[in-house]
Design brief:
Helix 15 (about 305-320) packs parallel to helix 18 and helix 24 crosses helix 25 (about 480-504). The protein has three domains: about 15-85, no CATH class; about 90-285, no CATH class; about 345-504, no CATH class. The chain has 25 helices and no strands. By secondary structure, it is an all-alpha fold.
């Protein structure tokens, strides 16, 4: 009670202003500019300032009033963040809720100490949430908590508690310092791999140096954050080398050892990341049995985008093995699943691409006429169609497959020529080796006028079929390119035979 009385007195001595926040009553109203602005953004009707001006005011002449509204709107949003009800945020796990609470207590503690000049109430907040921070290994918060307690014990003359807390403070500071050093190395790796224009050889050298730097750090750390970054950096390195076996082995090392480290707020995220990496390595190595077994193990515990990613690999395995019946069941399951319904539009569009490959495969296996509306397919994937990489390539390739299936070789040639332009612009990176090899096969097919007799045992096909253990599969490779090539040669042969029989 003493603590409550103290808090009431602090607030009572200062004037309370009316807090401007967004609550249910305000958002549900339709007669305020704030609600209209808020709901317009939430519903996706407002994407730019120009959209907002017309949506809220209906006229471009109200630009001055819109700027004022936007400023107040932003302040109200920021105020509302303080009052988010994390207990009703189903997507957040317990550790994330605990982090939010501990961080909020730290903020309030600083307010009480610096603004209200009340040390007792400030320290009580820290004491109340200290055990939660320790349980979850929030070293960034623990360092601040422990520092405040040290100052408090020193000011109050409690030598025993001071000495005990000083040992804890040193541990928290050390672990947090190592986490920061590891994170800086990781950001350098990310920048090197994704954002620099260095050659593959330069990237390999730089990332290898980073793996050596972080190996020195991980030997001193007990934090899972540091250990995960070490493993993740190794995975980046082996990706550059195209070594699928080492990627698979590195994932196994993490799964074996991660229990030995302090847990983290991101423990589940880390585990999901490693599982996806391992699953991809098994797929790339064409170890289908082990991959499907892993999917069976991890899919039930996967959530949201992770669940969809796991099921994508299942779909790829089924398609590459021509198991259309099970693939169709998987597709139907996904299309009715809550995670799919709540997914981002871009993620949903990926499954339209999978459906197109399934349709092509069924036509191939059943000697179909390859009837498939490519115009509707294009309308179903507006985001994928605008993408500069990824599933854009998969969509382009499947369109070519349907044209060849229909024996519409003129349209196939036009799209192959377009694909070569796309290749020169967006597939320059050496990580796209398999995609470039397959596009070269399609170009060769076009140059040889789709004569299947001249397209057997081409070098690029052999490299795709035999060297996959040292080739990282791009996400756009829905069905293994060498498997697609074999089907294309078979289709061209059958189309030629049908044409000959018709002439006779």
């Amino acid at each position: 009670m003493e603590n409550l009385k103290e808090l009431v007195n602090i607030i009572n001595k200062r004037k309370l202003s009316q807090l401007e926040v967004f609550d249910k009553s305000l958002i549900s109203r339709k007669d305020t500019l704030f609600a209209k602005f808020y709901n317009g953004i939430a519903d996706g009707d407002i994407k730019t300032d120009e959209d907002a001006l017309l949506y809220v005011y209906g006229s471009a002449k109200e630009a001055t009033n819109y700027r004022k509204l936007k400023s107040r709107f932003k302040e109200r949003l920021l105020n509302t963040l303080y009052f988010i009800d994390i207990n009703h945020a189903s997507e957040m796990d317990s550790s994330k809720k605990a982090y939010f609470d501990c961080m909020n207590r730290l903020y309030l503690s600083n307010i009480l100490l610096r603004y209200a000049e009340n040390r007792n109430a400030s320290i009580q907040l820290i004491a109340d949430s200290y055990s939660s921070a320790k349980k979850n290994n929030f070293f960034d918060i623990l360092k601040e908590y422990s520092y405040k307690l040290l100052v408090h014990y020193g000011m109050s003359g409690d030598e025993k508690k001071y000495n005990e807390e000083y040992i804890a403070y040193q541990q928290y500071s050390r672990e947090y310092d190592l986490e920061q050093k590891a994170q800086l190395i990781y950001t350098k790796v990310m920048m090197t791999v994704h954002y620099t224009k260095k050659t593959q050889e330069q990237k390999e050298q730089d990332v290898k140096q980073c793996t050596e730097d972080i190996a020195k750090i991980v030997s001193y750390a007990k934090s899972l954050v540091v250990y995960f970054i070490y493993i993740r950096t190794l995975l980046f390195y082996y990706e550059i080398l195209g070594n699928n076996k080492k990627i698979n082995e590195t994932c196994d090392v993490y799964l074996k050892n991660y229990h030995q480290y302090y847990s983290s707020i991101l423990s589940e995220t880390y585990l999901n990341t490693i599982y996806i990496y391992k699953l991809k390595s098994l797929f790339d190595l064409r170890n289908d049995k082990s991959a499907l077994k892993l999917i069976e193990e991890i899919a039930p515990g996967s959530k949201g985008a992770s669940f969809l990613a796991v099921k994508e690999f299942e779909m790829k395995i089924l398609l590459s093995n021509k198991q259309t019946g099970i693939a169709k069941q998987t597709l139907q399951l996904i299309q009715t699943h809550p995670y799919y319904k709540n997914a981002h539009t871009t993620l949903k569009e990926r499954w339209f691409v999978y459906n197109a490959y399934l349709e092509f495969l069924e036509n191939y296996l059943n000697d179909g006429n390859y009837k498939f509306s490519l115009s509707k397919f294009g309308n179903d994937i507006p985001n994928v169609s605008q993408d500069k990489s990824g599933f854009n390539l998969a969509a382009r390739i499947v369109s070519i497959l349907f044209y060849i299936g229909r024996n519409d070789l003129d349209s196939a040639m036009q799209h192959i020529d377009s694909l070569k332009v796309y290749q020169s612009r967006h597939l320059k990176d050496e990580s796209n080796t398999r995609s470039n090899l397959f596009i070269k096969l399609l170009s060769t097919m076009e140059k040889k006028s789709f004569n299947y007799k001249e397209l057997r045992q081409i070098k690029e096909y052999t490299v795709l079929k035999e060297n996959y253990s040292h080739q990282i599969m791009h996400e756009s490779e829905i069905i293994f390119y060498d498997v697609i090539w074999e089907m294309l040669l078979d289709i061209i042969k059958k189309n030629d035979q049908k044409l000959i029989s018709t002439i006779r």
